[in-house]
Amino acid sequence: MQIYLDYSATTPPRPEAIAAMTAVMGAQWGNPSSLHQWGNRAATVLERSRSQVAALLNAPLDAVVFTAGGTEADNLALMGVAQRYRVPQHLIISAVEHSAIEKPAQHLESVGWQVTRLPVNRQGQVSPMALRQALQDNTVLVSIIYGQSEVGTLQPIEALGQIARDHGALFHTDAVQVAGRIPIDVQALPVDLLSISSHKIYGPQGAGALYVRPQTELSPLLRGGGQEFELRSGTQALPALAGFGAAAELAADDMPAETLRLIALRDRLFDQLAGVPGLEPTGDRGDRLPHHVSFCLTAADGDRVNGRTLVREMNLAGIGISAGSACHSGQLSPSPVLMAMGYGDRAARCGIRLTLGQQTTAADIDWTAMVLRQVLHRALSPLTLSTV
Predict the structure, then answer these.
(1) Same fold yes or no, 3-8+256-379 and 15-251
(2) Under a CB-based contact definition with an 8 Å cutoff, are residues 8 and 177 in contact?
(3) Nearest-angstrom CA–CA distance, 28 and 7
(4) Which of 110, 176, 323, 355 is the most buried (most CB within 10 A)?
(5) pTM above 0.70, yes or no
(6) Active-site pick, 61, 260, 274, 327
(7) End-to-end alpha-carbon separation of the chain, Å?
């Protein structure tokens, strides 16, 4: 039995997205900037895709800027704001951001910007009061992840965004894990910038978008022909964007029923693994991504048994999951997210994530829970599993 439970890493492209891409590559392959009929056909595809993505967010068409993915969208949000200032200012992020936010923030620090990283509680959630207290006269941007990819916690984006807005700072959120799983209405949310990614919603890899609230000023990262409202120059990757648009439209249609189904499966898996000695759920059980299950193996020693060990053992059983820790030069690094949530160095190397999707069934959940219990029993018994 093969069971894929890593939908937060990527999702399989839907047949409809593949068909949309194939049609573009076969007959609508023109340059959308060209004025002739081939270009006009391509431009029609491009704007249809923009309309489909905009509808998923309830955004105006000219507020959707296509990018090569969520990472570029995040970078455009942070660097696009920062580059408008000659003198370094103040930026606020959370301590549990994706690296696509944390790394640009580190770069800005290296050139003189002041960066505040808001602490989180044991569930990985930011306190609105902490944001209020961190704001300064020169705070120009706040960026808080909407749904944390490693532990699943949802942030109180409405409250956080309103605090930033009342202060006069721009507010960005990385909604890559949220889009297509929880309704997003950028007309109602107090957000100025919002990032999403195609391959998290069953579209192709290599496409994403940044919502830019009208009148929000950004400097482009890429300069050239002035495509994407002069915010992202370069001929658009039309096949990928066609697939992105098709996936966005289907995600909006499916969301009401699919979100409830995923929540039921998510809770079923949490319940079946409740009480396993040394297996502690991570993140907030209530304010949580509907498809997301995560644990920390607190009974492990972190060297002989850790998150990567469990990923390998589950893979041998035909089940794909992921770990939060990373391996650099042969050394296993603790998860910065778990460390920020108060876990120790050893426990922070023992996080695992199981994320569900369209192809996940109740039978998959039951089988996975049984296999994981067996793997943990072997892993925590003497004389099993080699050191990572």
Answers:
(1) no
(2) yes
(3) 30
(4) 176
(5) yes
(6) 327
(7) 26
